[in-house]
Amino acid sequence: MNSNKKKYSQEIIAGLTTFFTMSYIVIVNPQVMASPGTGLTVSGTLTATVLISFIMSFLAGIYIKLPYALAPGMGLNVFIAYSLIIGEKIPWPTALGVIFWSSFIFILISIFPIRQKIVEALPNNMKHAMSCGIGLFLAFIGLKNLGLIVANPATYISLGDVNLPIALGLLGFLIIFILFNKHKSYSFLFSIFFISALGVFFGLIKLPETYFSYPDFNSHFFKLDLIGSLKWSFIPVILSVLLTNLFDSLSSLIGLSNSAGFIDKNGNPLRLKETLMVDSIASLFSSLFGTSPATVFIESSTGIQAGGRTGLTAIVAALCFLPCLFIAPIVSAIPAFATAPILIFVGILMCKTLKNIQATSLDDIIPIFLTIILMPLTFSITQGVLWGIVSYVILKVCVGKAKKISSVLWILTIICFLALVTEHSTFIEYLNNLKS
């Protein structure tokens, strides 16, 4: 009996650890998704974020039976908010529709062996390059939100004047680094509240009139545009969301399973099919509720390190999210200089995949470079993926290595090429003018 009590208490502590490590998403995700220009609201996104995190982490605990918690993913939220809605001027209901269809495809490829073929089709270097590119994009958004990087008509961008809010943001980054380096589960959350408290002290933040409110089920719930998001021009966007979500999930799962020993005799993650199924369902429900795709959080590793070994850890973490439904006014009052350091820090962590890139020939290096550099420069993860895949195949053909290209990669390349021609080329307009 005592051993059972110890086991349960260990799982509960692990669940609390997981929650405190990933709870920053309750604050950061609504602020990212409700950035000026998206049309989304903080209250609506917060409600969606909390419900998705609760429902899907609970489902993971019951169905996967491993200590994996889920929530809207960092990187994916920036992609949806800044790349699709703001950058490509896609209305947010249409963007939610794009998430729905990409998640629907994700469910299908999780049921059938298509998922494995897509994963195998892309070279490992390209997968790592995508992760690094997203990291740079994330860090760039964080630097921009902080005000450390500003627009400049002569040099495009330049360093902003270091004022008090920027100084507090840099202090927040330093706090995150120190606590994260000491493996403290509360590093992100502590930084947010500490810097916000300093903001109040210096008169930079106006406290809300009320600290609690009812959940917002009216702003975004089931407001997605399923028909408008099925245009041909959105196919590459759907594909980009799908691939980004897929690789994000796989990289998190591989890292978590290896760190915890949740692997089979072949070195593959345990209950991979079940985990990807929950992950894809979570993304689909994210679109219905009105937020960015949810995924397995790499922060679940802290709960695993605290002794979590079963689904009870995920269930405890899920239950901890419920009280967060009522704190929308508090989240709205938290300034960008308190959350921007997290975007920068997470972006840096994603760039660690650079160490896994092994490339010596230019036909490998150029696609990797384009994938990484175009994501922040074009303000679009989609463009990095499209140009990376197309350039990879074209260059391989040019150097006589066409045999290395699988049929699946050929199909992906044709889709990406058509997307570039139809969306970012004047050739079709030129041909139409010739006909007329």
Question: How does the SSE layout of this entry go?
Answer:
Elements: H1 2-22, H2 25-33, H3 42-64, E1 70-72, H4 76-87, H5 92-111, H6 114-121, H7 124-146, E2 149-152, E3 156-159, H8 164-181, H9 187-201, H10 235-260, H11 272-289, E4 294-296, H12 300-305, H13 311-321, H14 328-333, H15 336-350, H16 362-377, H17 381-398, H18 407-423, H19 427-435
Antiparallel strand pairs: 1-4, 2-3
Helix pairs in contact: 1-13, 2-3, 3-11, 3-13, 5-10, 5-11, 7-15, 7-16, 7-17, 8-9, 8-15, 9-15, 10-11, 10-17, 16-17, 17-18
Family: Belongs to the nucleobase:cation symporter-2 (NCS2) (TC 2.A.40) family. Azg-like subfamily.
Protein name: NCS2 family permease
InterPro entries: Azg-like (IPR045018), NCS2 (IPR006043)
Order of helices and strands: HHHEHHHHEEHHHHEHHHHHHHH
CA-based shape: globular
Largest sheet: 2 strands, antiparallel
- Which strand order spans the largest sheet, edge to edge or round the barrel? 1-4
- Count of helices? 19
Radius of gyration computed on alpha carbons: 22 Å
Number of beta-strand segments: 4
| Residues in β-strands, percent | under 5%
Query: Which parts are unreliable, with pLDDT below 50 for 5 consecutive residues or more?
Result: none
Count of spatially separate domains: 1
Distance between the termini: 84 Å
| Structural class estimated from helices and strands | mainly alpha
Mean pLDDT: 84
